[in-house]
Amino acid sequence: MRWSHYFLPTLREDPKDAEAISHKLMARAGLIRRLGAGAYTYLPLGLRVLHKAAAIVREEMNRAGAQELLMPAMQPVELWKQTGRYNLLGDVLIKFKDRTGKEVALGPTHEEVVTDLLKEIRSYKQLPMTVYQIQTKFRDEPRARFGVIRSKEFLMKDAYSFDVDVEGLNRSYQAMFEAYQRLFRRLGLQVLACEADPGMMGGDVSHEFMAPAASGEDRVVQCAGCGYAANLEAAKSQLLPVAPTAAAIAPAETVKTPGAHTVEQVSAFLKVTPQQIIKTLLYDVEGKETVAVLVRGDHEVNEAKLCRLLGTPQVRLAGPQTIERVSAAPVGFTGPVGLKGVRLLADSAVTAMPEAVVGANQAEAHMTHVVPGRDFKPAIVADLRVVTEQDRCPKCGGALQFVRTIEIGHVFKLGTKYTQALKAEIQHPSGAVTPMIMGCYGIGINRIVATAVEQHHDAQGICWPLALAPFQVVVTVMEADNPAFLAAGEAAYQQLTAAGLEVLLDDREQSPGSKLKDADLIGIPVQVVVGKIWQAEQQLEIVLRATKIKHKTPPSSVADAIQKLLDTLRTP
User: Fold this and answer.
1) Taking the model in full, what pTM does it have?
2) DSSP-assigned letters across all residues of 51-68
3) Is there a contact between 245 and 371 (Cβ–Cβ < 8 Å)?
4) Res 246: pLDDT
5) What are the angstrom distances between the C-alpha of 415 and each of 167, 304, 386, 524, 553?
């Protein structure tokens, strides 16, 4: 490919709307252009990388025994209503009516569609079955950001397994888990397999594949000692023992706290630390129940853990009217003592407090010397908080590290959530009919590209892993208007192409400095420079992009020299 005829517009400055490193470099290197909020065009160079990522994912899916198909992007909303996810996704689901007035949705994922399709399987003899597709998905993200990391339209590989029983699901899940580990290794990406919360997907087991990155919008905890890793929604907090009740603690007392309704304000007013305060937060559970969740003042409620405990897909903080109705006090003064009509759910760190400050359930007042177990009794004590840097590893007791990451893959054990709702059933030899057992396995193809840029770059630009590089070699002719230089570059280009390498020939008539900067910016692993060394010694200069290590070789052996260098860059 000749750069002079290739649509590869590079930029010297970062786009004004770019926050993430990957967004800046992908735009500057001519990989993408923004069309609108959350929508990007892939230019030829970017599309080559995207295709390479998809090819490796496809190879590993096939190797794991999955079969490729392609399902429609437009989906009837009736399927979503049958599984209960129509309301759960809310405005994220992009919906419209066709000319007949029928409501349809652009698929953000395909659990409903694939389950409806696989209902054709009626016998246990046809299982196990795993299918997958690589297809565009649509989500009306409320805050599209970070370029292609969080966009409204994106390319996704989604796979689905169907099995007779849980043992079969475990085997299918493990096969996909191992396929993910292989493909991310081949792609040259550092990825953590983290325990995760299934969220709106459902099921009881899931893992996220999280790539450490400075621009990552997610945070995970990792133990350097035993390898434990989990996202913040699933990370287990320490279960603290119940504090023994001290007889010397004075009775609870109500004190006026005018203008103090936040933890910080109450701490300052009463001269206590946040660790000595109990926050009482009221949550609405699907409009059926209001519960009071108690956490220490320096802790935050983990709503994913709360949902799992209550067996509900979603909870919402109660509004001011509900708070005043339940507690008889304005927002900021709710407390557990004497609170009626709601269940008290306490994080274990609350019951480990010998005494605490709590809201008094009256305006401008709090209670001091409140003893858990003496002055209020929680209905349930559980791990309900977000893990903190003070927590220890739940497996080995080691120190936890907080790592900023990008989610690039997610696997779920869905069980019968979808097959039961959509009546995807099989008949056993005994004649019994049961729902199939299902798993789901997703990978963001666009995020693979962005993650590679996040993890492989320097001050000059991108340093592509070999497996994802749009070209393996760039031949830069420093003086393309000089026939002798151009002829040498053409000869190297022809020799390398004949050797089966993917080569970009920079034959543009531009300044040598700008061409070398562009070569660094777009990040092709090996650079061949036809410049001063060729003019003085009739030798070509070979530069490894990532390390800047330089070699010299005569033109006749350039292909062999580069093949040897590429062998050192290949992922085992």
Assistant:
1) 0.89
2) HHHHHHHHHHHHHTT-EE
3) yes
4) 62
5) 11, 19, 27, 44, 60
CATH number of 253-382: 3.90.960.10
pLDDT for residue 107: 95
Do residues 339 and 292 touch, judged by C-beta distance below 8 A?
A: yes
Angle at 204 between CA 129 and CA 202, to 5 degrees: 75
What pLDDT was estimated at residue 455? Answer: 97
Q: Which of these, 99, 3, 163, 1, lies nearest to 510 by C-alpha position?
A: 3
**How far apart, in Å, are the Cα atoms of 188 and each of 156, 161, 243, 570?**
19, 27, 49, 9
C-alpha distance from residue 57 to each of 50, 159, 412 (Å): 11, 11, 18
Sign for the pseudo-dihedral over CA of 268, 271, 273, 278:
negative
Residue 457, helix vs strand vs coil:
strand
- 522 in Cβ contact with 461 (< 8 Å): yes
366: which 2 tokens?
A: 């709090």
Q: What are the residue boundaries of the structural domains of the chain, listed by start?
A: 18-236+401-453, 253-382, 471-569
Q: Kindly provide the residue ranges of all beta strands, DSSP E only, lying in 11-53, ordered along the sequence.
A: 32-36, 39-42
Classify residue 443 as exposed, middle or buried by CB count within 10 Å of its CB (0-12, 13-18, 19+).
Answer: buried
| Residue 45 Cα to chain centre, angstroms | 25
Q: Report the chain's C-alpha Rg in angstroms.
A: 29
Measured N-to-C along each axis, helices 558-569 and 483-498 cross at an angle, to the nearest 10 degrees, of 60
Return the percentage of the chain with pLDDT > 90, whole number.
84
**Rounded to an integer, what distance in angstroms lies between the CA atom of residue 267 and that of residue 155?**
49
**To which H or E segment does residue 433 belong?**
strand 433-435
The first and second tokens of residue 27, run together, are: 């735009």
pLDDT score, position 572: 67
- Alpha helices (H) along 166-206: 166-186
Please give the Cα distance from 225 to 394 (Å, whole number).
11
111-145, pLDDT tens digit by residue? Answer: 999 999 999 999 999 999 999 999 999 999 988 98
The CATH architecture assigned to 471-569 reads 3-Layer(aba) Sandwich (3.40)
- Give 163's strand partners: 437
User: How far is 436 from 166, CA to CA, in rounded Å?
Assistant: 10
SS3 254: strand
CATH code for residues 18-236+401-453: 3.30.930.10
- Amino acid letter for position 179: A
From CA 220, how far away is CA 193, in angstroms rounded? Answer: 10
* Alpha helices, DSSP H, located in 238-372: 263-270, 303-310, 320-327, 348-351
Each residue of 244-263: pLDDT tens digit?
A: 766 678 899 999 999 999 99
| pLDDT over 60 (residue 308) | yes
Q: Which helix (H) or strand (E) holds 494?
A: helix 483-498
Q: Judge whether residue 202 has pLDDT over 60.
A: no
Question: Cα–Cα distance between 360 and 336 in angstroms, integer?
Answer: 8
Distance CA 11, CA 18 (A): 13
